[in-house]
Specification:
Blueprint: H1 7-17, E1 21-25, H2 26-30, H3 36-45, E2 49-56, H4 66-84, E3 88-92, H5 103-119, E4 123-127, H6 138-148, E5 153-158, H7 159-163, E6 180-185, H8 195-201, H9 213-223, E7 229-231, H10 243-261, E8 272-281, H11 284-296, E9 300-304, E10 310-315, E11 318-323, H12 329-337, E12 340-348, H13 351-360, E13 365-366, E14 375-377, E15 383-387, E16 398-399, E17 411-418, H14 421-433, E18 438-439, E19 443-447, E20 450-458, E21 465-470, H15 477-485, E22 489-496, H16 500-509, H17 519-529, H18 533-541, E23 545-548, E24 553-558, E25 567-574, H19 584-595
Parallel strand pairs: 1-2, 2-3, 3-4, 4-5, 5-6, 6-7, 8-11, 12-15, 17-21, 22-25
Antiparallel strand pairs: 8-12, 9-10, 9-16, 10-11, 13-14, 14-15, 17-22, 18-20, 19-20, 20-21, 23-24, 24-25
Helix pairs in contact: 1-10, 3-4, 5-6, 9-10, 10-14, 17-18
Length: 596
């Protein structure tokens, strides 16, 4: 149920991703054009184990005649399991209004079911649904299994049903490991809604949500559980995404769970020092226009390739490669996406460690010919180069001019990417696992044409910050960007300054056009924060946006969009750790006015 497509395509995607086993959801059998024996044979031909058939619903605690009919249904399930070639039936707690309360009654029913399963060489796993009528707590489900005391009956633990209710995990280590027949794991965002719709539509792969999975995996470790760990993910986006991509993410999420349980088994996350460079793919004419803008922003052209149309622009620690060459990766990327960011260079303290972790998480490693650096596959076919400080990757470039001695802009503060909604969770998982970044809460940004979902990820030192944006609405600024780019990519780059007022004076003097902010914004700002009149006038004079937190202040201004595509942001942080989320709708509305 975690993948889109037909059963054959799902199973092929699961096998290709590297999984050892699969749970079969009965709905898949109802739409399969073939016999159960054919399904079982196909599963085994792919090298997979059919771990369980599920779900068997509304069984325990029924009055007659429903109780007898439930056992008749179970016998038909055992027939089906025999044909499929699996020995575990997953029974979830009863939700029927006809069911009767009582753990002892449930234990008696499950004992008889387990005895019938034993006679056929099969087992029964019992799981507490969070919305079960009488049994909705895993501790009650385990008590039923304990009371039944049958060797063919065990407990099934599901992280969502446990963690979504904030149930204590202290009972998990007290369950004998041989009595845990299966563990299902799902992550999820924290949402204020009913458990059933939350579970059926918004589950995530581990590492994509906010549930405390580390505590759950530690409880499994304490229980000495050594059986299968399975992904049970109900998510509307997954059902419309590529099954192979979701399966690959699923495998990566299981590696993440392994790391939570046994951190020493994987290479640690690399220490990210920040963005080493950003590479633009442009035509010659576009390159000339961007270089004119970079010069006005205070950058100097420090290096150039002797034969190729490639130049390096630098100010402080911020470096931009302008690539207008007529061949190579950047040229091919430009043909597909137009003027765009085709690559980002990430500085890491230990390259071998970073590469080992990427391999452990099955991230594709590339060796493009443009630069003598290892690279990871990035968003929409772009590249993420990995480099250690001091790596002589610029040795093919000829030195021209030194960078500015007193730069107004000192480093790249953050990079914002826009992507299709179905890819947001996937890239969150990639950055969280492969690069070891931590994720903030998901933020919804109002756009005049709809909502934009925004997710920030950053390293502990805050030297590498990424913001991921996506929108379900086709007319938002984010969606317009996707249409213009023919896919996701970098929408803006934020540059940090220690003195934003001095920086903007210099930029305005150089002729840099800043995004105009309406007067009404500053009237609201005065009411919201009670700012000093002189500060308020200075903010308005320079089209500056402003936000306060309990810890500090944040100043931000934006350039006009280059070629209607990407733009630059100038920021100053004063003990502030966010991204000015309250100002995003004002900025977007101003940009849409320019585009209309």
């Amino acid at each position: 149920m975690s993948l889109s497509g037909d059963l054959k395509g799902k199973l092929e995607a699961i096998a290709a991703a590297g999984f050892e086993g699969v749970e079969l959801f009965e709905q898949d059998l109802l739409t399969f054009d073939g016999s159960p024996q054919a399904v079982g044979t196909f599963i085994r031909s792919l090298g997979l184990t059919l771990v369980a058939l599920q779900p068997f619903r509304d069984f325990e605690g029924l009055p007659e005649p429903e109780r007898s009919r439930a056992f008749e249904r179970a016998e038909r399930k055992f027939d089906l399991m025999e044909a499929l070639g699996t020995d575990l039936l997953l029974v979830c707690s009863n939700v029927s209004p006809k069911s009767l309360a009582g753990l002892e009654r449930a234990a008696e029913d499950l004992y008889e079911l387990a005895e019938r399963a034993r006679r056929r060489g099969m087992r029964v796993g019992f799981e507490a649904l969070a919305w079960g009528r009488h049994i909705h707590d895993y501790r009650d489900a385990w008590e039923v299994v304990r009371r039944a005391d049958h060797p063919s009956l065990g407990a099934v633990l599901d992280s969502f049903h446990i963690l979504a209710q904030d149930l204590p995990l202290s009972t998990v280590p007290r369950i004998p490991p041989e009595k845990i027949f299966l563990v299902q794991v799902a992550d999820a965002p924290r949402l204020e809604m009913g458990l059933l719709p939350w579970s059926r539509h918004f589950r995530n792969l581990p590492g994509q949500g906010q549930l405390p999975l580390q505590s759950f995996m530690q409880a499994l470790e304490d229980a000495r559980y050594q059986g299968f760990v399975s992904l049970e993910i109900f998510n509307d986006q997954f059902r419309s995404a590529s099954p192979r991509e979701v399966a690959q993410d699923g495998y990566r999420s299981l590696i993440y769970l392994q790391e939570l349980r046994e951190p020493q088994t994987l290479p640690p996350p690399p220490a990210n020092l920040g963005v080493g460079f950003v590479e633009f793919a442009l035509s010659e004419g576009e390159a000339a226009e961007l270089e004119d803008l970079l010069g006005r922003l205070g950058f100097a052209c420090t290096h150039a390739h002797p034969t190729r149309q490639v130049r390096l622009w630098q100010q402080g620690q911020a470096r931009f490669l302008v690539n207008a060459d007529a061949e190579g990766f950047a040229h091919a990327y430009h043909l597909l996406h137009g003027p765009s960011v085709c690559a980002i260079g990430l500085e890491v303290t230990d390259l071998s460690q970073a590469l080992a972790r990427a391999r452990a998480y099955r991230a594709p490693l590339l060796e493009p010919a443009d630069w003598p650096l290892p690279a990871l596959g990035g968003l929409e076919g772009s590249l993420l180069y990995l480099l250690e400080p001091g790596t002589p990757w610029t040795e093919t470039l000829r030195p021209l001019h030194p960078p500015p001695v007193r730069p107004h802009l000192t480093r790249i503060d953050h990079i914002a990417q826009v992507m299709p909604p179905a890819q947001l969770l996937s890239w969150r998982l990639f950055y969280r696992t492969v690069l070891g970044l931590s994720a903030s809460d998901l933020t919804e940004i109002p756009d005049p044409k709809g909502l934009i979902e925004s997710q920030a990820l950053q390293n502990p030192e805050r030297t590498l910050r990424l913001v991921l944006n996506a929108s379900q609405h086709t007319e938002t600024l984010a969606s317009r960007f996707l249409n213009a780019y023919y896919g996701g990519g970098v929408q803006h780059i934020a540059l940090e300054t220690p003195d934003i007022f001095a920086a903007l004076k210099a930029l305005e003097k150089a002729g840099v056009a800043l995004l105009p902010i309406p007067e009404t914004y500053y009237l609201d700002l005065e009411a919201r924060y009670g700012l000093d009149k002189s500060l308020l006038e200075a903010l308005q004079q320079h089209n500056l946006l402003y936000e306060q937190s309990e810890e500090g202040e944040f100043f931000q201004a934006y350039t006009d969009a280059f070629a209607g595509r990407f733009f630059f942001e100038i920021v100053e942080r004063r003990d502030y750790d966010g991204f000015g989320a309250s100002n995003a709708s004002v900025r977007i509305a101003a940009q849409l006015r320019q585009l209309s």
